[in-house]
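Minutes, structural biology subgroup

Action item carried over from last meeting: produce the structure token record for peptide-methionine (R)-S-oxide reductase (Rhodococcus artemisiae). EB confirmed the sequence was re-checked against the source entry. Recorded below for completeness.
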Amino acid sequence: MTTTPRSEPAPKVTHSDDEWRAKLTPAEYAVLRQAGTERPYTGEYTDTETEGVYECRACGAELFRSSEKFHSHCGWPSFFDPSESDAVILRTDESLGMRRVEVLCASCHSHMGHVFEGEGYPTPTDQRYCINSISLRLVPKA
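Output recorded by EB:
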């Protein structure tokens, strides 16, 4: 898999802006719905090693698994692959004078973070899904 963005299907979960604001905290809303970024090394899952599934905090869709999480020492949780290839949408992001690939939840199109490749991490995909902790909810393995 490459980080080439592909066409976006319509979101399965939709809410009005007011409904999203009522459902999410202001900090969650800023990241998930306005493509913000939490400060590095401040997120609750940056160094977590708990086994489980990481869901979208906005809609509950499964996005990542702890078995694909690794320590990249970049300040945000890092994964080398989503749980399923269609769990996320990749979108070209040319904000802040850079060209990056944004990662969105495929179910509700909430902002998760960005994906980078070719950085030399010893992972099966050579990719780093750099994801905001506040975009996720960890469901520990039973």
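Discussion: The domain at 17-140 is CATH 2.170.150.20 (Metal Binding Protein, Guanine Nucleotide Exchange Factor; Chain A).
Next step: EB to file the record with the rest of the batch.
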